[in-house]
Design a protein that fits this description.
two-stranded antiparallel ribbon, binds iron/sulfur cluster, about 170 residues, alpha+beta
Length: about 170
């Protein structure tokens, strides 16, 4: 199915859910929205740059070089209109993950561990089950598109490398 159609369906599935029942932004002063510089942002799923092309008043989309199917980085200039936040923000602190045997999982994003209080234990029990279910549903849907699946596969290998790095608390 067309990736834009699938992305819109995923946006809709994740429109109302949040990682916890209460506003988790109060735990951390919205740490996941506090980019430090122009290189800090969300990697967009293939096709999202088209969906978000009209959002230039609050979002800059930069090209990424040398990262295979990970081609676009979005950087917020100011808080987003919630209905337009990218997929990576909607699923955070979870991430899709494809094993080398092509099994699709949803897991805590290891990149979230240093910033998100909900990710410190790397245990999904910290998250609202409704949120986890919605993320699974959205990810299973978008992964039906071969370009997005290739993106998730590449991202997963990057996450494998990331997890090999030492983590200090
Ligand atoms: S960093 Fe984690 S706890 Fe804080 S707002 Fe983002 S998802 Fe919620
Ligand atoms: S798009 Fe919205 S949710 Fe995502 S980092 Fe920017 S302000 Fe935060």
């Amino acid at each position: 199915m067309d990736k834009i159609v699938l992305l819109k369906m995923a946006y809709s599935i994740l429109e109302k859910v949040t990682p916890t029942r209460l506003d988790c932004g109060k735990l951390c002063d919205k740490a996941c929205c506090q980019g430090e510089d122009e290189d800090t942002g969300m990697i967009l799923y293939p096709g999202e740059e088209k969906l978000l092309a009209s959002q230039s008043d609050w979002l800059i989309i930069n090209d990424l070089e040398g990262l295979g199917p990970l081609k676009k980085l979005a950087v917020c200039k100011k808080p987003c209109p919630r209905s337009m936040r990218p997929l990576a923000c909607r699923v955070f602190p979870l991430t899709p993950y494809l094993t080398e045997d092509d099994i699709l999982l949803v897991k805590i994003d290891p990149r979230a561990r240093g910033m998100c209080p909900l990710a410190r234990t790397m245990d999904k029990k910290e998250l609202d089950p409704n949120f986890i279910r919605a993320v699974r549903k959205a990810i299973n849907l978008v992964a039906k598109n071969h370009e997005i699946r290739a993106y998730i596969y590449f991202l997963s290998r990057m996450l494998d490398e990331y997890e090999k790095q030492p983590y200090f608390v």
